[in-house]
Write a structure and sequence with these properties.
By secondary structure, the chain is α+β, with helices and mostly antiparallel strands. The protein is built from 4 helices and 7 strands; from the N terminus they run αββαβββββαα. A 7-stranded antiparallel β-sheet has the order 2-1-7-6-5-4-3. The longest helix is centred in the first third of the chain and has 46 residues, at 4-49. It starts with a helix and ends in a 5-residue tail after the last helix.
């Protein structure tokens, strides 16, 4: 009889444990749904509150230069990279303008002066940075990020839309541009002295 009693207690315990795990699973499901809802509403609010520049989607050329700022007001170029890709820069701007506070770094709101958006402090993967975005048109802009501190550096991006994306041209019934057409357009714009 003593053997039967522990088995009976084990069965009750396992049934009680099943009920508790079922409640935990339901609670976990509700918490997960609430978290997804809050993230979605934060993203929707960020979309609605975006008051930054908008740009045309298309094939964009980006030239990025990263420089180390030396104590004697000199600069040492660390990196220069060029990239051409089909993007919607407005989406990247939304991410820049919604830069959240990270740890002790608190992002400031941008100040708009003429065609420039100035962030005196923005939290970024590089740490606290000051950022100036200069909008030349809906097809061109520059972004300068300056990191101050032990290893001050300056990150500059010059961006210019050079054509429609190949899939956009195809959907409009236009022939896709040959690579030589795109490079000719870039050479012509550069020759005219406009920013890349």
């Amino acid at each position: 009889m003593r053997i039967v009693q522990p088995i009976r207690i084990q069965r009750m315990t396992s049934r009680e444990g099943f009920g508790q795990s079922k409640v935990c699973a339901c609670t976990l499901g509700v918490v997960a749904a609430l978290a997804v809802f809050l993230l979605a509403s934060d993203n929707a609010a960020a979309e609605e509150s975006f008051s930054g520049p908008t740009f045309r989607k298309g094939m964009w050329r980006f030239v990025r230069t990263l420089e180390l700022v030396l104590p004697s007001n000199g600069r040492q170029k660390l990196l220069e990279r060029e990239m051409t890709r089909c993007v919607d820069p407005t989406q990247a701007m939304k991410a820049t303008f919604s830069s959240p506070s990270i740890g002790n770094c608190h992002s400031s709101r941008p100040e708009k002066i003429s065609n420039r958006y100035i962030f005196s402090n923005r939290c970024d993967y590089m740490g606290p940075v000051s950022t100036v975005i200069t909008v030349l048109s809906d097809e061109a802009y520059t972004e300068v990020n300056e990191v101050h501190g032990q290893a001050p550096r300056k990150d500059r991006v010059v961006a210019r839309r050079i054509s429609d994306c190949h899939e956009d041209r195809a959907s409009l019934g236009q022939p896709a541009g040959r690579p030589s057409e795109v490079s000719h357009d870039v050479e012509q714009e550069t020759a005219e002295g406009e920013p890349l």
